[in-house]
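User: tokens in, sequence out, please.
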């Protein structure tokens, strides 16, 4: 049985820092090649922040655009959730910095650490408050400055990620013809050792030793994560469709987390979907962690690939392990 939430996305925006880094640029920094990166990941280029730009700045830019596009007064926003693994600081929460900058005087909020599934989790949480009727307008943002935790001496990770943010506005769904049809989220902490940043938290506070041992960077067992991601992206996608009585023919668009083109294509093949039904932008942005899905939705809207009533599936797997999927009817 599905888990409908009477909430819908009514607007989506994104922010990408202007500086573009191509695979050829990375060839000059690490022992890699454009050919390897393209064929193993699907990535051609990604955007990097300049020094001084943090997750809150990108989140604020996306949020401001969203308020403007929707003609919403910031004081109408009642909740802000920022999904990120690269918050500006351990505290205060990035949501507080965004709240202040956009002037959302009536909002509360918090940061959510769900890695690549952070946006899906944040959307699930924010939607519950809207569906409960206690909140009318909720901002859900995914923002990650992955370059702040990338080891540019580790070719196996540094080529994969980019910086970016995406934001959605969530409001009440008036009928089951729009909004969230079902969601399926789970965690499997046994996979935590395969993708993590060892230091900077309470276990290994920053010290000369943690810096010397390069413990403030992303560490990943790529093949382990890859296998888990393929299986879970496929399982969650097909379960969400099947248990709601849908087939691949009913699906208008799959917006998967953009970690690796081969993971996306494996999911696509399992669901037997045409290219036209799969959102791909990993070639231009790389893996922006919590931002990939809102950026995918934004691009889909801009490319006119979504219309009111369309069945859309977002799905992600990330560090934790975290897995998330939301099936929804596009509302505008
Ligand atoms: O979003 C969060 C979740 N993350 C993911 O979903 C990522 C999942 N994992 C992956 O996408 C892939 O495992 C990677 C893209 C990280 C790696 O691809 P792979 O096909 O699993 O490669 P591999 O790790 O098995 O490495 C194959 C070879 C190795 O060389 P040898 O040992 O065969 O000589 C690596 O050293 O490729 C080498 N290699 C590279 N070569 C050139 C690894 N990185 C690079 C590189 N450039 N950047």
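Assistant: Sequence out:
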């Amino acid at each position: 049985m599905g888990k409908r939430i009477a909430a819908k996305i009514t607007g989506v925006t994104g922010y990408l820092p202007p500086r573009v880094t191509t695979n050829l640029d990375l060839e000059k920094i690490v022992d890699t090649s454009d050919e390897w990166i393209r064929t193993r990941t699907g990535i051609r280029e990604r955007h990097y922040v300049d020094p001084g730009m943090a997750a809150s700045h990108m989140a604020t830019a996306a949020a401001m655009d969203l308020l403007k596009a929707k003609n919403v007064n910031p004081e109408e926003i009642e909740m802000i959730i920022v999904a990120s693994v690269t918050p500006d600081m351990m505290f205060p929460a990035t949501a507080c910095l965004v709240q202040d900058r956009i002037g959302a005087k009536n909002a509360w909020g918090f940061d959510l650490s769900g890695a690549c599934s952070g946006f899906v989790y944040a959307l699930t949480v924010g939607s519950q408050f809207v569906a409960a009727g206690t909140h009318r307008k909720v901002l859900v943002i995914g923002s990650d400055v992955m370059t702040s935790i990338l080891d540019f001496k580790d070719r196996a990770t540094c080529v994969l990620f980019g910086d970016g943010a995406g934001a959605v506005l969530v409001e009440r769904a008036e009928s089951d013809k729009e909004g969230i049809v079902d969601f399926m989220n789970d965690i499997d902490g046994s996979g935590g050792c395969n993708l993590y940043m060892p230091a900077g938290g309470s276990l290994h506070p920053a010290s000369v030793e943690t810096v010397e041992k390069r413990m403030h960077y992303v560490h990943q067992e790529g093949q382990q994560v890859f296998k888990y991601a393929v299986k879970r992206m496929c399982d969650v996608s097909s379960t969400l469709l099947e248990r709601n009585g849908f087939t691949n023919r009913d699906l208008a668009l799959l917006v998967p987390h953009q970690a690796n083109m081969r993971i996306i294509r494996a999911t696509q093949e399992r669901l037997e979907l045409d290219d036209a039904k799969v959102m791909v932008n990993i070639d231009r942005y790389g893996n922006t962690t919590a931002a990939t899905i809102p950026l995918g939705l934004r691009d889909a809207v801009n490319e006119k690939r979504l219309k009111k009533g369309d069945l859309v599936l977002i799905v992600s797997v990330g560090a934790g392990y975290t897995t998330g999927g939301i099936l929804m009817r596009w509302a505008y």
